[in-house]
Amino acid sequence: MTTDRNGTTRTVASATRAAPAGDFDYERNGRGYAVRRRPDPRVAAFIHRALGDARTVLNVGAWAGSYEPDDRYVVAVEPSAAMRAQRPPGGWQERPVPGARMTILNRS
After folding, report:
1. How many other CB atoms are there within 10 angstroms of residue 73's CB atom?
2. Which of 55, 61, 101, 106 shows the smallest number of beta carbons within 10 Å?
3. Cα torsion angle, 50, 55, 61, 65, sign
4. pLDDT tens across 78-105, in order?
5. What is the distance between the terminal CA atoms of the chain, rounded to a whole angstrom?
6. Sign of the C-alpha dihedral, residues 18, 19, 21, 22?
7. pTM over 0.85
């Protein structure tokens, strides 16, 4: 059983399926997200300006990676397998974290 941020107790269906972190279950409903939700160029420009001259980016809750820069080293943390499966190609390596419901991805 897990308790979400609203105090709702939920039973996890299996040890391999993570319980949703919030109100939206990306494992069940996230397929096709990268097609339905296209990046907004204004948001992308804001993020890239905010990164400044940083060469390494840690993207926590990375979703499908829509706003990640191509010109920097990116480490992405995304718990949803459905979202990780939609990431753009680019040499991503998955590194599951033992004992945790997350996977770290890094692009080589």
Report:
1. 13
2. 55
3. positive
4. 888 888 888 877 777 888 777 777 677 7
5. 37
6. positive
7. no
